[in-house]
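We close this part of the discussion by returning to an individual protein. The sequence in question and its C-alpha cells are set out directly beneath this paragraph:
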Amino acid sequence: MSHVFWILILSLSILKATSLQAGSRTVLRLISDNNAGSGGSDPRDYGVELNATNFDGVLKDTPATYAIVEFFAHWCPACRNYKPHYEKVARLFNGPDAVYPGIILMTRVDCALKINSDLCDKFSVGHYPMLFWGPPTKFSSGWKPNQEKRDIREIDDWRTAEHLLNWINKQIGSSYGLDDENFENELLPSNITDPGQKIVQAVYDVEEATATAFDIILEHKMIKSKTRASLIKFLQLLVAHHPSRRCRKGSAEVLVNFDELYPLDMWSSDKDAAATDNLKEVLHDFQICGKEVPRGYWMFCRGSKNETRGFSCGLWVLMHSLSVRIEDGESQFAFISICDFIHNFFICEDCRQHFYEMCSRVTSPFKKARDFALWLWSAHNEVNERLMKEEASLKTGDPKFPKIIWPPKQLCPSCYPSQGPKDKGSNQIDWDKDEVFKFLTSYYGNKLVSLYNEKDLLANDRTKVTLDDVVASTNAVVVPVGAALAIAIASCVFGALACYWRSRQKNRKPRRSWN
C-alpha cells in the first residue's frame, strides 16, 4: 500500500478529530439528528448543549448575530420545569428547520458537571437558571456583576417563553411570536424594502452552495472523462479565490489527490459504472468545505417560500465573489472555468443552456478582471430580466424577493448617473460602469467576507494565493506542482502530503493536454 494512502488516512483522521471539537454548525446539525432518532413523544431539544471544551469555539464560529447562554443544573427542579419554555423560544432560532436562522444561537451549560465548574465561575453563576445575552464572540471574556462596561448582559425577564421572547423583541426591535412558522414570516427582509439584506451573512450561503453543488455532482454521477477537465479548472479557481478558507482548503485537498482519485483510465467503457459508484463513496470523505457544511438552511439566500432562492442564489453569490477576487491575468481562465462548470454540472437544463448561450456570445478573451466581473454582472441582469417576465406570467416568483435589475438605486446611487423609463431593462440604463465595478468589488468582496474577517476565519491577506500558484497552464492534465504549494499554505495539516505529492509530480512524465 502506497505511502500516499497512509499519509492521506492520517490527515483525514486529524481533520475528523478537529472538526468534532468545536464547530457550531456541527453541533446545530446534531439537533435534528438526535431528534430524528428519538422516536418518542418528548419535545425536541433545540437548545445547544455546550461545555467547557467547546464553549468558546462554538460561539466564535456561529453565524448568528446574538447568543443566549442558559446556565443550569440538571438536578434543579426549577431548571427542569423551565426547559420547555426555553425550548419553545429556541425552536424559532436553532437548527436546520429554524423559523429565523442565523439571528440568535440559544445554548445551555450544565453547571452540575465538574467539567463546567470553572466556566460557570467565570460567569459568576450564583443561582439556577441564569440567562445571558450578547454577541457570540464576547462570551469568551465571561461576566462579572459589577463590571461597568460589558457586552454580555444578564437577562432579567425570562421566566416564561412569552417573557423571554418579549425581552428578545425589545432588544432587537423585532416582533417574533411563539407560533411563527417556517417560511411564513412577514418580517423577512425583502430585496425591495431592504436591498442590502445583510450580505455579510452570505459567506455562509456561499459555503452551503459550494457543498451542495458537489453533493449534486456526486449524487448524479456527473464526473465523466469528458467533464473531468472542467471540474479540475473550477477546483483550481476555488483553491485560489474562494471567499471561505475552509472551502479553499477542502478544494485543495481534492485537487491535490485528483489523479489518485480519478485516474484517466478509470473511465474506460467496461469500468465506467463501477468507477462512478466508487467516486461517490471516496469523494464523500473529502468534504469540500469541511464537515460543518452544509448546514441545511440558508441565511442571506433564504426565500419567503421553501422552493425559492436558496441554492441558485448562493451559486450566483459564489460566482460574483470569485469574479472580484481574481487578478487581471486570471480573468479568461475564470471565465472558462465558470462557463464550463455551469455547462457540465448545473442540473437545471434550461438555466444551463441559457448560461452557456451567454458564454458563447463572448468572442474576445478577457484581459482585465474588471471586464469579466462586469460581464458576469450583465449576464446576471439578463437572466433576471428573462425570469421577471416568466415569473410574472406564471406567478411562480417569490413575492418578497421579485427579480430586479441589480444593483438597485438604493444600494448604488452613483451607478445611475441617468436612467431611462423604469419599465425598461438593464440595457436601457445609462450605467456608470466604473461605479458598478466599485460596488461589485465592495459588495461581493470586502463586505461579503467582513463577518469572517472579524472572526479570523478567512485570513485573506495572510494567505494570498493566485492562480499562478495553483495552475501551470489552463490546459493542465495533471494537477500542477503549484497546487501542492496552495494546499500547504491553506493548511499545515496537509503539508506532508503535499510535499510528498510534489516530489512525485516532478518525477512524473508529462501527459498530453486534453484540449
